[in-house]
Design goal:
elongated
């Protein structure tokens, strides 16, 4: 039904309203923005630095090997995530 103004249309009685969901939106919230990915990588690298610093702290001398091993493992995870992101970028795909 038109109301006299060109191009203005009112929905008929009982017509289906358009969905409020955005097309392409993730309903579960699993899509991560590039800024959030960068923050996650920064947090992983900060954890690596904290573990290496803690491994040199004298009161934690008995945990030194475990702290360094944890730092190396966390660094390798951050490196793999960064390389995967670069690979997706080079391929032109969105992770």
């Amino acid at each position: 039904m038109f109301d006299g103004i060109t191009g203005t249309r009112h929905p008929e009685e009982g017509a289906k309203r358009p969905s409020r969901r955005m097309h392409g939106a993730d309903p579960v919230g699993l899509i991560v923005s590039p800024a959030e990915r960068q923050q996650a990588l920064s947090a992983l690298l900060a954890a690596v630095m904290a573990l290496f610093v803690a491994s040199g702290y004298p009161p934690l001398a008995r945990w030194r090997r475990r702290l360094r091993a944890a730092a190396i493992i966390v660094f390798l995870v951050a490196l793999a995530a960064a390389l995967a992101e670069v690979g997706f970028w080079l391929a032109g795909a969105q992770p």
